[in-house]
Amino acid sequence: MFKISNNVSIPEDEIELNAIRAQGAGGQNVNKVSSAIHLRFDIRASSLPEYYKERLLMLSDSRINVEGVIVIKAQRFRTQEKNREDALERLRQLIRSVNVVKKTRKPTRPTRGSQQKRMDSKSKRGRQKGLRGKVKDFS
Predict the structure, then answer these.
(1) Quick check: is 106 in a domain?
(2) Residues β-bridged to residue 9
(3) What CATH number does residue 46 fall under?
(4) 59 by DSSP, 3-state: which?
(5) 3-state secondary structure 7-46
(6) What is the pLDDT at residue 39?
(7) Burial class for 48, CB neighbours closer than 10 Å (0-12, 13-18, 19+)
């Protein structure tokens, strides 16, 4: 079982992990060793609670395709084991992120003192800029 939180876990057979060749620099090793991991997780077919499924499918994340499958490619490390752990941890973080409820923003007003201070600084700045003009000749 792949544990997400204290109450939520996923059977490991629902997570598809494939070893693939990594992209990018790395010399000869990158061309012959399949060290990158390609993780696929079908949200709709999973045993996640409905609340998690709905919230995941509503996310506008590029890792979730139109079929509702999470695709994570892990190739940060040189070893397959570390990339596997990295992919699973990224999946765990993505699923946990939908459980966090954001606080509703309560609109606030600036205090009268801060408004007065702002207006004073604006008028002071305006006077200072006004003094920068050309000097008039009264002769």
Answers:
(1) no
(2) 3
(3) 3.30.160.20
(4) coil
(5) CCEECHHHEEEEEECCCCCCCHHHHHCCCEEEEEEECCCC
(6) 85
(7) buried
Letter for the amino acid at 122?
K
Give the containing element (helix H, strand E) for 84: helix 80-97
Q: Which tokens in the block code for residue 31?
A: 């061309």
Q: Are 65 and 40 in contact (CB under 8 A)?
A: no
Q: Which residues are 70's β-sheet partners? A: 41, 64
End-to-end distance of the chain based on CA atoms, in angstroms? 93
Q: Which residue has the higher pLDDT, 5 or 47?
A: 47
Domain count, the chain: 1
Structural domain that includes position 11: 2-97
Q: What is the pLDDT of residue 113?
A: 96
- Angle at which helices 80-97 and 50-58 cross, to 10°: 100
Residues written for the chain: 139
- pLDDT value at position 5? 72
- pLDDT, position 25: 67
- Chain centroid to CA 112: how far? 38
